[in-house]
Amino acid sequence: MGVDLRQVVAGVLTLTMFVMLIHMIKRDHFDSVQDKLPGATEDFSFENSKFDATHVRKNIGLWKGDADQLNPCWAKPSGDDGEQTEGFVTFSLTNGPEYHISQIADAVIVARNLGATLVIPDIRGSQPGDKRNFEDIYDVDVFMKSMEGVVRVVKDLPARISTHKIAAVKVPNRVTEDYIAKHVEPIYRTKGNIRLATYFPSINMRKAGKKGDSDSIACLAMYGSLELQPEMRDLVNSMVERLRTLSRNSDGQFIAVDLRVEMLSKKGCQGSDSDGEKSCFNAQEIAVFLRKIGYEKDTTVYVTQSRWDSSLDSLKDLFPKTYTK
Question: What is the pLDDT of residue 97?
């Protein structure tokens, strides 16, 4: 068997939580805290309860209502999909579903800059021989439509091209145009086709600056191209519904924090950068931040850390209803 279904669901949930937190932090402004979050009623039936869109209140102070729409972080480039070449870019989705959006974005950026055709990836598991088709998890038609005007996409590599003769190229996550020009394009020009392998440095967080074409395209690839197949989407929705039910003291609202404790010990997380800005924040700093911007002590917090770590105790001290996945 290929990818374990439980791993897929866990990864998608991790991604959902991460996107929610990003949007919360990067909003243009936070609403003023005017309403105290309601607690659970005495006749609340935990096992038989189910929150629906009408039960979850809209825009309660800092909370984001379900009816609110996310503002897209991309704009499709004007004109066609750039200067075209004859080659192909292939790749696989690996390391679990939480990494897929990053790998998709890197492949799209590389193909766009090279003017190459992107081949729909397969999905590889952690064990040799673990392999699934892209369409087993994601909607391939939605992906191809989202890339119209960005890059050319085909479902399969033409039969005339031998996979054994394709050059393998490693690229860092959030690959830049300069890196592509220096390290990828010369190989592509020589070999004609390449196979990408994305690696993830300990810390690779580019500062937000002036948004260029590549930033917008990467954002589209990450957040506007992957859509789960219906059966997978239903399963994820049921999990989110369960999280809302568990968050009964905050009317079905909760905060999701993508916190990877193991990353905090890496060299890239030590100290601040040249401008004095930190790249990584520990559980205590996150807890203090959430309290300072107005979240109450009884707020439910879900952390994407798989197992409980002692460093999370400081977060639980300020938010007793803190849980890991």
Answer: 80
Residue the block writes with tokens 């005495």: 42
Backbone angles phi, psi at 203, to 5 degrees: -135, 125
312 or 240, which is more confident: 312
For residue 40, the tally of other CB atoms under 10 A from its CB is 14
> How many whole angstroms separate alpha carbon 17 and alpha carbon 55?
21
Contact predicate 291/56, CB 8 Å: no
Residue 59 region, left (φ>0) first, then alpha (ψ -120 to 50), else beta?
left
Q: Minimal CA–CA distance to 98: which of 38, 183, 11?
A: 11
Beta carbons of 91 and 160 less than 8 angstroms apart: no
Segment 268-295, tens digit of pLDDT: 676 666 566 777 888 999 999 999 988 8
Helix or strand (DSSP H, E) at 123: strand 122-124
Looking at 26-99, list the stretches that DSSP marks H as alpha helix, in order from N- to C-terminal side: none
**What is the C-alpha to C-alpha distance for residues 137 and 37, in angstroms, rounded to an integer?**
37
Mean pLDDT of 146-160: 94
CB proximity list for 244: less than 8 A, separation 6 or greater: 51, 56, 252, 253, 254
Residues 112-150 have pLDDT tens digits of 999 999 999 999 987 777 889 999 999 999 999 999 999
Whether the CB-CB separation of 90 and 128 falls below 8 Å is answered with no
With b for 16 or more beta-carbon neighbours within 10 A and e for fewer, the 67-96 pattern comes to: eeeeeebbebbeeebbeeeebbbbbbbbbb
Dist. CA 284–CA 264, nearest whole Å: 12
DSSP 54: T
Long-range contacts at 262-265 (CB < 8 A, ≥ 24 apart) = 263/202, 263/203, 264/311
- pLDDT tens by residue, 291-309: 998 888 888 898 887 788 8
- Return mean pLDDT, the chain: 77
- Report whether 197 contacts 260 (CB < 8 A): no
